């Protein structure tokens, strides 16, 4: 991407006064939520009406972000929109039902950083080498000489912290530290972000972790670990459905594990799968086989249940990928 790409997207967002609908991907995470809120704050700054929507609720851990309470559920949207901005959506399906709120002549803007993003928008700003979508937005704002307020900086920093795992993952670069330093200069407390995004757990989440870890399985080769979460477990714990993601780090952190997975049963019977790899396996390729996507080391997909069948289908491909990767070493 070059400066012209950034400026064209910035102009698309800021140089009209029609209402803009902003959506981040279903089962939203820190990068998606931070990016959506930062763009809503940009629209506020330039006087453009904006609505934030998602099929799923925003996890409680992000309630500290300015504007987090502005999100509405897709089902509550009555109107169609002439312009929709999708942030952090690896493909158009990740927008959920919001895509059906685009008017017949409307335009779709796509800002993202996933390797599997095919450029599904009418206008696209996609950098698969960026550590986070919030980094893509930061570059756009800087190149447009747009002011970055304290609240915008907090949202962008939150997305970067989430997608780099608190600057621990292999997508942590010198640039990302420089960007983080610039954002921090706006005056918010970084420990608050780290605490809320990476560490703090509610009692309900702890109960879900307890129930989920009881399902932990390690494949016979010692290279694959996975946990599974049912709707019954979610109801028993009192946690929100999306909060099951707190279990995922336990799988990949086990010694010797190359691929960690979380299988989560959704209310409609589908199964959401989150995949993480340590060094060798391209989990985005596995997710693509099930119409999902993501990054080489972090990806996701959704497939029909029941849960045991979904687990068996995904593990078949994961085992083959791990065996092939180990054979190359």
From TrEMBL:
<dbReference type="InterPro" id="IPR038763">
    <property type="entry name" value="DHH_sf"/>
</dbReference>
<dbReference type="GO" id="GO:0003676">
    <property type="term" value="F:nucleic acid binding"/>
</dbReference>
<feature type="domain" description="DDH">
    <location>
        <begin position="20"/>
        <end position="160"/>
    </location>
</feature>
<dbReference type="Pfam" id="PF01368">
    <property type="entry name" value="DHH"/>
</dbReference>
<dbReference type="InterPro" id="IPR003156">
    <property type="entry name" value="DHHA1_dom"/>
</dbReference>
<dbReference type="Pfam" id="PF02272">
    <property type="entry name" value="DHHA1"/>
</dbReference>
<dbReference type="InterPro" id="IPR051319">
    <property type="entry name" value="Oligoribo/pAp-PDE_c-di-AMP_PDE"/>
</dbReference>
<dbReference type="InterPro" id="IPR001667">
    <property type="entry name" value="DDH_dom"/>
</dbReference>
<protein>
    <recommendedName>
        <fullName>Exopolyphosphatase</fullName>
    </recommendedName>
</protein>
<feature type="domain" description="DHHA1">
    <location>
        <begin position="229"/>
        <end position="323"/>
    </location>
</feature>
């Amino acid at each position: 991407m070059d400066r012209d790409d950034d400026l064209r997207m910035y102009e698309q967002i800021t140089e009209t006064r029609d209402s803009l609908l902003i959506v981040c991907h279903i089962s939203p995470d820190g990068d998606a939520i931070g990016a959506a809120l930062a763009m809503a704050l940009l629209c506020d700054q330039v006087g453009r009406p904006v609505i934030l929507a998602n099929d799923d609720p925003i996890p409680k851990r992000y309630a500290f972000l300015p504007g987090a309470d502005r999100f509405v559920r897709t089902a509550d949207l009555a109107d169609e929109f002439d312009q929709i901005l999708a942030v952090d959506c690896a493909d158009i399906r990740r927008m959920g039902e919001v895509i059906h709120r685009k008017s017949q002549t409307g335009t779709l803007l796509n800002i993202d950083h996933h390797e599997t993003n095919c450029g599904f928008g009418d206008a696209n700003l996609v950098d698969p080498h960026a550590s986070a979508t919030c980094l893509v937005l930061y570059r756009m704002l800087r190149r447009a000489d747009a002011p970055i307020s304290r609240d915008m900086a907090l949202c962008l920093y939150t997305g970067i912290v989430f997608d780099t795992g608190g600057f621990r993952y292999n997508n942590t670069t010198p640039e990302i530290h420089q960007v983080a330093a610039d954002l921090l200069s706006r005056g918010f407390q970084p420990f608050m972000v780290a605490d809320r995004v990476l560490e703090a757990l509610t009692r309900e989440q702890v109960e879900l972790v307890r129930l989920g870890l009881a399902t932990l399985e390690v494949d016979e080769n010692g290279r694959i670990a996975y946990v599974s979460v049912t709707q019954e477990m979610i109801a028993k714990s009192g946690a929100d459905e999306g909060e099951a993601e707190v279990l995922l780090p336990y799988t990949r952190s086990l010694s010797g594990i190359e691929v960690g997975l979380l299988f989560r049963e959704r209310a409609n019977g589908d199964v959401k799968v989150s995949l993480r790899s340590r060094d060798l396996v391209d989990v985005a390729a596995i997710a693509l086989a099930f119409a999902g996507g993501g990054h080489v080391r972090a990806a996701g997909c959704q497939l029909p249940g029941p849960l045991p069948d979904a687990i068996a289908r995904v593990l078949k491909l994961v085992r083959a990928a791990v065996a092939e990767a180990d054979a190359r070493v």
